[in-house]
Fold:
Amino acid sequence: MDNYIELIDANINSINIDLGKYDPVKLVLFSVGSTWVLCKVANAYSECEEGVLVASKKKFFKLVRKLPWVEREIQKELGKSMVSLQKGVNDQMKGLSYNTELPASGWDKNMIVDEIGSLLGLGDFKKETGALSGICHQPPDDVVDVVTTVYSMSAYTNPLNPDAYPGIRKMEAEVVRMTGSLFHGGPDMCGTMTSGGSESLILAVLAYRGFAKETRGVNRPNIVIPDSGHVALDKAGHLLGVSVRHVKVNSKTLKPEIRDLRRACDSNTIMLLASAPQYAHGIMDPIVEIAALGKSLNIPVHVDACLGGFLIAFADRIGVTLEPFDFQVDGVTSMSADTHKFGYAPKGSSVIMYSSTKYIHHQYFVSADWTGGIFISPTLAGSRSGGVIAATWAAMMNHGYAGYIEATRNLINAADKFKEGVKRIPGLKLLGDPRLCIVAFTSDEFHIYRLADEMKDLGWMLSCLQYPTAVHLYIVPSHTKEGIIENFLRDLHIATDKVKNTPDELTGRAAVYGMAQQIPDKSLVSDLASGFMDILYSTKT
Structure:
């Protein structure tokens, strides 16, 4: 031991002799400066959730864009795309001018109804023909009559003050409980209605962020999701300061591998996501395995059933066997399901549910010191539409189990018919094994976006997907009408034959979409998307 001490002393003396040649002030400044730089680098690395390579690439493109001649060329090319997008939007308006000021005298009912009728008639697709992919989940006319009658009765109610409309409060509580019962929520299950799937997912992240901070002291939270998870989780991360870690899915099954999800988790992970099903390809994630992973790591697991919740809840009643997906699965701590999709309520209606109040209490916002009094809000909004709550309650009560089972059977039958039809068209290839309402497909022989353009010309909508490049049809009630799927498949066959025998060139929005995938600097895609949004809100013609 004495020899070691002597060796250390000798090394220290040698270092002191070497450093004695330098100015002490310079040594102090160098030490402080080096420490500062190392701390900055370490902090940047620890905060770089997207990876050093990706972050470096973004930084490089940002610097390059500051070069004047580069920025000029970028704006020139963006301008060309904007002109094309502007033309498409203007064409839809069919020469109509915009109202930019209040009329001098109010319009009467007939004028307003006539104008609304004209405006609703605009657009390339008509829901009555089954042309729309997703977007519109309008049920049969008899259900619409019930729902809209109830909505008109309660349109001006507001549940913000629970004493003002106790009946609306009762209906909301019943909607949450009835929905939770569909997913085998226990006696402690709790939740609220929200304005839609995005808000439901944002609130789940909000709740788990607060829960993790309180129980584990997590101050730099992250969530781990398959890259097929809904983009609303990325919005949640953006709004709430939560890092979102994406895990690639298997290229064949389009499901995440559990080992990859495990590798992405750490002590700051506050939530794992499983989709039931995911939007792009209609595939159910391995919920049992993801829930088991969450339980083993003490991480809450949210099941996003916003899209298919009111299908999967009744799937077993029509002979469709799915792996367990709800609160029966040990480890599932929350779920979301959109009542405004296959619950057939009006848009602006979803339900977020938790297995325990220990989570939802972090969703609530409470202010005890406001001059206006003690304020509590269960969701992101303050005032909410009592009309939507009442209409949702009416849709659920009007359908009952029998109505939802029948509606689910019709949807799944139409989806199965479409899936089998796609398989029979040479040149098309299904993605994964869809079991519900979404059928995604691509082609190895031509750019699939060309098929979407061709189908649009024939009056049908296909939604474009990326990574991998594909399209999908999202089956909704209008597709269940007699002959609709047969007509769609007939035109799909015709369109496929046409694009196989013509040059592989993209046009219109498909060209912009295709171009966006190939741009390495994604900030340009953001500029393009923001510009398009500006166009949609512009009243210039």
About this structure: The chain has 18 helices and 13 strands. The longest helix spans residues 386-423. The first strand starts at residue 190 and ends at 194. The chain has a mean pLDDT of 89.
